[in-house]
Amino acid sequence: MVNNFISNAIKYSPGALKVVINVDVNNNNLVFSVEDFGIGVDQNHIDKIFERFYRVEATSMRYQGLGLGLFISGEILKAHQGSFWLESNSGKGSKFFFSLPLNWESKPKPELKDNSYEDEFIKLSYNSLHDYIESEWKGVQNFDSVTMGGKLIFELVLLTGSAKILNDNSKVIGNWADASEEGRQVWFPALENAGVRHFAWVQSPGIFSRLAEKNSINQAVGNLKVQFFDQKDAAEQWLRRI
Predict the structure, then answer these.
(1) Is 142 helix (H, G, I), strand (E, B) or coil?
(2) How many other C-beta atoms can be found within 10 angstroms of the C-beta atom of residue 230?
(3) What is the DSSP string of 158-215?
């Protein structure tokens, strides 16, 4: 898998003198990246890569135009609760990432205290002055962390009766697309049934994370309005005007 990422970076940097390899740890996940200095990947192709790997209805299209090595790498990562993503600038190159959890330690069940909660993945609070719930997600996310966070948000909605949520993904790193189906099929319908009517979503700077955000709600219907924002201030102002 590492060899595939590095080989691709070299192949797509024919005129460059180097590729850049980096290894980091974030939220108990190993994060590996390879940066090339080729022509980059245009947005339309990034969308297609996301669709073919992370949308159920596109399973039969996975081999088309992606390369067997990338497909196999993605399947290996999924099998170990990891993920991959990429960032790219047209004409400047691309940076491919993958993450893998470092261990499988079980943790005690998270509990809200005084209408708030915080761990390495998420910070939750209730703004009583403006009557909205604020969820701030942090670092590398995975299926378990997103599912746990969704449950806590739902519990806080039931406790406070708030109909508004400020969901801040501006500090999220990577790709949590495997959990987006859970959001679309379980959590957004549950929030709507619990009375939530306005959901202000501050987007992550990462391309794959933004696509996962859209995938979470693109079939949401009914009385729950979701609005995306690039800046937290704009999201706060929108909720306070309602």
Answers:
(1) coil
(2) 10
(3) HHH---EEEEEEEEEES--GGGHHHIIIIIHHHHHHTT--EEEEEPPSSHHHHHHHHH
The C-alpha atoms of residue 152 and residue 150 are separated, in whole angstroms, by: 5
The per-residue pLDDT for range 82-91, each reduced to its tens digit, is: 888 888 887 7
CATH 3.30.750.24 matches 117-241:
yes
Task: Write the pLDDT tens digit of every residue in 147-187.
Answer: 999 999 999 999 999 999 999 999 999 888 888 888 888 99
Predicted structure pTM score: 0.80
Fold of 2-101: Heat Shock Protein 90 (3.30.565)
- Residue bearing the bigger pLDDT, 22 or 50: 22
Q: Which helix (H) or strand (E) holds 49?
A: helix 43-54
**Residue 167 C-alpha from the chain's centroid:** 12
**From the centroid of its chain, how far is CA 38?**
26
* Cα 57 to Cα 59: distance, rounded to the nearest angstrom: 6
**Strand, coil or helix: 129:** coil
Among the listed residues 151, 110, 119, the one whose alpha carbon sits nearest the alpha carbon of residue 137: 119
What's the CA gap between 170 and 209, in Å, rounded?
A: 10
Per-domain residue ranges for the chain? 2-101, 117-241
